[in-house]
């Protein structure tokens, strides 16, 4: 068979059932093999970067998924670099396959011949141009081994067109995936870490995205319940423990944090971090504040992550699931022996914060205050909802005010945060879980970056609801400019000559969405948000296309965050909740 056909057969035997991409001359032999081989569905993207983000959303939806994105030579590969960067930053395995000019002319600056492997190396676990057709099976086998082993991450395989077409000897029936390597903690290490936890008075667990990657959320909750230890999920770990669980202490950080989360963390004296990387939006830049008075244990699958941000008091290189299995085993033994302390008072303290330190969400203002949008989203979309978002004030406010109850139900681009990620990622999520209620969340600029991908949802009948909060501003950048006393090049307003009813809100997103084959609803009154969300759900089910709900916001809103990079100094720009009706969709009813 051709090397391209061998590659397709390996994809199937490694569990791949879906791919996203855009064909081109240099990758057409692979597409021919994809068609003739069968077994791998394909979604045609409108932009190759979009295909890479679709693959990422697909991977993030279910344990074991590996999203595949395909493009031709030259700019297709460079377009996917942002997707690879996003994937490696969040430890997400995706496979990027690109076409390439013939091997004999790669070095001659042939049309669309670029050294994509060298360009991609810093943002992949492996990036290689395969120059010998006989190596194709081994390279693909190694790719899946690397993507799944240790800290997960993306791989790029570049296939010159002559390599794809060359016939090789390959027996797919005897192909076997390589064993996956994951470091595992020893019992002695776990016993030492638990000993440190038991000897503390006010312990916390910081649960990172590594727990979700390892499909270890149930073990986390079991361990937290056995030891009575409250849990602080990171943004990437959100959903590892349900928001309404009594041991969920809220999120911590400069931006995507809860008032009660920061308060509880600052009262703690011991922190066990599992599968997290101490990202600066979580810790703040003032590490002395974050660390003062606390002992730290760090468990991470990647040994070089331990000590990268700060030196913990004890570090364990281990897959989160392997570590938590031992944590649960040892904790059960200690509980049976009566050697675990009662944490009732400490748990109650965290729940008291959760019932008193709330932000206000209920406002009746017109134009709409964004906080009200998230309040109505909490009412309209239930615990089964899979939220998808990337960056901006929309994402920050959403993380402060929305509720997540299950792992992989907050699908967020954390480290890279590229604008435009949300639409294609949501399409990837909805493709991976077509029966789910998928709700994307964007500001107007994120929405506009890759708006053409809405047509993919219309063409391939991929329904989901996209909540678009529009203030015609680069809101997060405008807020970041306050400290510099400028408001420069962040204003997106203009009077649209074709839609004068919009005033200064510029782009008519409803017309654009409808022009791309989707449905769209515009809301200007907060009292109409709930009905709009219900209508959107019905339209998505009836027409099987993306449905956009655009909320016209007040032009300027400052969302709660620290202006000093200090988690103990978060500015509340808006009113805090002082009456129960100020936060009617909060996890705990406010104690006035």
Provide keyphrases for this structure:
592 residues; alpha/beta; six-stranded parallel sheet; 24 helices; 15% strand; globular
Tell me what the structure shows.
The protein has 592 residues and is of the alpha/beta class. The chain is built from 24 helices and 19 strands. The strands form four sheets. A six-stranded parallel beta sheet has the order 2-1-3-4-6-5, sandwiched between helices. The protein has a six-stranded parallel beta sheet with strand order 13-12-14-15-17-16, sandwiched between helices. Strands 8-7-9-10-11 form a five-stranded parallel beta sheet. Helix 1 crosses helix 2 (28-37), helix 12 (259-267) runs antiparallel to helix 16 (344-356) and helix 17 packs across helix 24 (529-543). The radius of gyration is 25 Å and the shape is globular. It starts with a helix and ends in a 21-residue tail after the last strand. The mean pLDDT is 96.
